[in-house]
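Re: [ENG-882] Designed sequences occasionally contain unexpected residues at chain ends

Forwarding the minimal case from QA. Structure tokens:
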């Protein structure tokens, strides 16, 4: 059975094409900086948004029409596996991602839940073998079920903490079985509502203990995936402990986890934190912690995580500008479309259209960013802007030779201070020219 209308595999037709079922910019075989687009971008489909999201929002019920809606329980789970591999083949995407509760329903007991998961994981594994598709990352959903109302690894209830550990243990085992290249920790409920009833120190200590235990168990079973934490500032928890990249890195450094974990950064989470996506990527990159990305965008007129497919070229260019400068690019990570169609886009084919739009947007971003770096369009200006640190007293500062006494002595010479323009408007114009012409 086809869940997307027997659509043929999407091909690259170039920017002049008007075919909505064709790539205009994503040419998987095009080589840039010694790697193909396919290797640079490592596109992944998000299981939760592509197959389990039904079109609901905070004010309305499901609207999306899907061919597998007639099924329930394990039959529905099996149908979604079929849909997943159909969509991956249509898009030519190599990877997918899932939460454990995306792929199989919870049972009456943990034993029954694990049995359901084992059955679906076996089916996924079989499909991966025949299709050649791969798992970019998996994770555990520890935010939907009411048991996690007070958190999972930061809960006040030790029984919930134990359940969460058992759930992640199973998820790590499934990640190893499926050859997942990464494992993500997203603390959807890891935060607090009010300090009036919160022992913040205990909660953070327990979170660190949990992550250390997860790392220890992964080593024990030989699961060598890259471990990732995904920052988010709010929604659902008012004060989440992984607020942004800088906050998360501080936590990792305090608890001796910085060598074990990198960051999975999402564009819409960045804007909810009051940052740009490129800011979060830069913070991670200069700290050696950029691991993978969730590709989407938010709506600045709405106050929640709208998870729209990325079409803002300004953002995708600057994202790829950071990724191309990262050591080994995106490395073991990828570009996962943690994005969903709008609830008014009710047809299955809209899922295909939306992924084409996102893949083309990041492909265009890759091309423009590579041209910016090749021409040193921004680097030359930045080098010149900081040239005072290359000679004289500036060079002494950078070399660690200066101290307050030597700096005071220099300042007392009363040399004239000349301020250079930042030329922000000019550089934005340069960026626009590259977006239009590269």
């Amino acid at each position: 059975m086809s869940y997307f209308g027997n659509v043929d595999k999407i091909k690259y037709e170039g920017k002049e094409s008007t075919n909505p079922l064709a790539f205009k910019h994503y040419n998987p075989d095009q080589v840039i900086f010694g790697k193909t687009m396919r290797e640079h971008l490592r596109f992944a489909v998000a299981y939760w948004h592509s197959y389990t999201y039904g079109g609901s929002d905070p004010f309305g019920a499901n609207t999306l029409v899907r061919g597998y809606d007639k099924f329930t329980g394990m039959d529905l789970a099996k149908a979604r596996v079929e849909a997943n591999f159909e969509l991956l083949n249509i898009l030519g995407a190599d990877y997918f991602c899932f939460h454990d509760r995306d792929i199989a329903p919870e049972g009456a007991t943990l034993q029954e839940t694990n049995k359901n998961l084992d059955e679906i994981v076996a089916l996924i594994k079989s499909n991966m073998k025949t299709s050649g598709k791969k798992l970019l990352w998996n994770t555990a959903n520890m935010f939907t079920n009411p048991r996690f109302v007070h958190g999972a690894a930061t809960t006040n209830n030790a029984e919930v903490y134990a359940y969460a550990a058992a759930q992640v243990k199973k998820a790590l085992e499934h990640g190893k079985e499926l050859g997942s290249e990464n494992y993500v920790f997203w603390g959807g409920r890891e935060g607090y509502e009010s300090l009036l009833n919160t022992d913040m120190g205990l909660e953070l200590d327990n979170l660190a203990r949990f992550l250390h235990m997860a790392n220890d168990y992964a080593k024990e079973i030989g699961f060598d995936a890259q471990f990732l934490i995904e920052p988010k500032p709010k929604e659902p928890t008012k004060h989440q402990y992984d607020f942004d990249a800088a906050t998360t890195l501080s936590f990792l450094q305090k608890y001796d986890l910085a060598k074990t974990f990198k960051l999975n950064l999402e564009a819409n989470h960045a804007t909810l934190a009051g940052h740009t996506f490129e800011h979060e990527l830069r913070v991670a990159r200069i700290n050696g912690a950029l691991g993978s990305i969730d590709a989407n965008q938010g709506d600045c007129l709405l106050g929640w995580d709208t998870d729209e497919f990325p079409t803002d070229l300004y953002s995708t260019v600057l994202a790829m500008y950071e990724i191309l400068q990262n050591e080994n690019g995106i490395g073991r990570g990828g570009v996962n479309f943690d994005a969903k169609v709008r609830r008014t886009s009710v047809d299955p084919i809209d899922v295909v259209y939306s992924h084409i739009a996102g893949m083309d947007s990041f492909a265009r971003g890759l091309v423009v960013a590579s041209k910016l770096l090749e021409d040193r369009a921004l680097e030359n200006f930045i080098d010149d802007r900081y040239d005072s640190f290359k000679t004289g007293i500036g060079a002494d500062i950078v070399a660690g030779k200066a101290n307050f006494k030597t700096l005071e002595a220099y300042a007392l010479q009363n040399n004239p201070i000349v301020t250079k323009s930042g030329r922000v408007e000019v550089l934005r114009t340069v960026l626009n020219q590259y977006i239009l012409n590269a």
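QA comment: On inspection the terminal residues look reasonable. The longest strand covers residues 134-139. Proposing we downgrade this to a documentation issue.
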